Amino acid sequence: MSKCEQCIVREFSSLKALNKDELVKLSGCKTSRIIKKGEVIFEEGENVNGIFCIKDGVCKLTKLSPNGKDHIVKLVSKGELLGQRSMISDEPVNLSAVALEDMEVCFIPKTEVMGFFDKNNQFSMNVMKTICGDLKEADVHAVNMAQRTVKERLAETLLHLHNTYGKNEDDSLKIQLSRDELASLVGTATESCIRLLSDFNKLGLIKLVGKKITITDICKLKKIAEN
Amino acid sequence: MSKCEQCIVREFSSLKALNKDELVKLSGCKTSRIIKKGEVIFEEGENVNGIFCIKDGVCKLTKLSPNGKDHIVKLVSKGELLGQRSMISDEPVNLSAVALEDMEVCFIPKTEVMGFFDKNNQFSMNVMKTICGDLKEADVHAVNMAQRTVKERLAETLLHLHNTYGKNEDDSLKIQLSRDELASLVGTATESCIRLLSDFNKLGLIKLVGKKITITDICKLKKIAEN
DNA sequence: AGTATAATATGATATATGTCATATAAATGT
DNA sequence: ACATTTATATGACATATATCATATTATACT
To answer: Is the distance from CB of A91 to CB of A27 less than 8 angstroms?
Structure first.
């Protein structure tokens, strides 16, 4: 089994505060798992009892709305941790995690992580900072949802996907979302999302080939996003 | 100057983890302040360098949207702390705080609080749990904004105000918000908010006298909120 | 008290966005 | 390879909600 000392997650996440001994200890108790595209990592309401380290791949965090639709709250990818909030609050997870592509994740049991909390101050500080960052993002998102049009939010989302996940050799967005998922991320109906993509296409801002989306005019897209 | 040992904030906030000695130390370094309705406690982008304890009163946390409108992200009241996220992230505050009624707050400098973080594990755990709770709330809010109508959100907000802040002797909501503020909290235009209040009034769900709002039919209001 | 200013209210209208229907294209299963 | 299902696309339409205009109150000011 691979060792935590060289793992990519260690470099980018709160785990970077752990010292050699702690990492060795971690290697001993973690379990590794391959998750196929579309598979569920955990479901809203479940007791997870630990955190997941994403070694590779991207997943969506979704929440079921009262009307039965799934809403994508956030995308989480390689190098990040999952399930921290739930572990700290000592509550079931309030979001579901579903793989958007094939993934490789490790699971660390809660008991182990809580030990680091007690003994390693920098580690708990890192976790707190991550959660604070999420909260700040959530505040920005709330305002955007309230005050910006679907068109603006879609443009912004496309740019964000471009900046965060990059592009393939053919310049299309690397991260592959269905129209349905993109709509859910933007916070709109699927048809509205498709229609606006179509508009952007006609305006020459993006190019659509199958479900591939290629941004062809970042500047104009930015102008729409920022209004 | 009043002592922290008997303060109400201590009972309800993360500070409940502090022991006698720590509280005495706190009493020595805090500064107390009276804030009049409408006054600003801090403004988005400011460096606050500490946390505020709300001994009395309620304030709104607002965020300026790109189009220049203020959006109310959250109400915070007696017994709660302000500025924790900013202190942990070591960043300027990302929200403004404005008093909705006369307030009494204490300020504790960052250096002092950070000391507790290092030495008192239960305290830092409490702070984390609070922030995690905020994040969970934010997730729920995001979904609501995306998937529920203004009418549903207004009904829900009225019920929430009723449950959280109670009512006066005449049964009207204790917390006094302008239509503008209520709209901003619900995430809609002022006129839309006024119009829907008017509708609720005609349907006999609420009663409007001046800017006072009285809920007269909780059940029906709940039905609208939950739909 | 009386005027100026701001808040609340309501009507008229525009428009963004959701919903329903249907067509086409792509993916999946056997 | 073919049929079945699912995803994407587009049109037609309904409607929720924002915007603008204008009363009507309340509130603040001197």
So the answer is: no
Count of domains observed in chain B = 2
At B99, which helix (H) or strand (E)? strand B96-99
B73 and B26 housed in the same domain = yes
Residues 106-125 of B with CB under 8 A from A: 117-118, 121, 124-125
Residue A132 with chain B: CB contacts under 8 Å: 85, 88-89, 131
The CA–C1' separation of A2 and D21, in angstroms, is 70
A148 in contact with B, Cβ within 8 Å: yes
Residues A100 and A18 in one domain: yes
Output the pLDDT for position B14. Answer: 94
Domain that holds residue A219: 146-226
pLDDT digits (tens, 9 = 90+) for A69-123: 899 999 999 999 999 999 999 999 999 999 999 999 999 999 999 999 888 989 9
- Asked if residue B128 lies in contact with residue A125, where contact means CB atoms within 8 angstroms, the answer is no
**Amino acid found at B78:** K
> If you average pLDDT over residues B122-149, what whole number do you get?
95
A21, two tokens: 């001994």
> Do B48 and B156 fall into the same domain?
no
Would you say residue B127 lies in a domain? no
**Model-wide pTM > 0.85:** yes
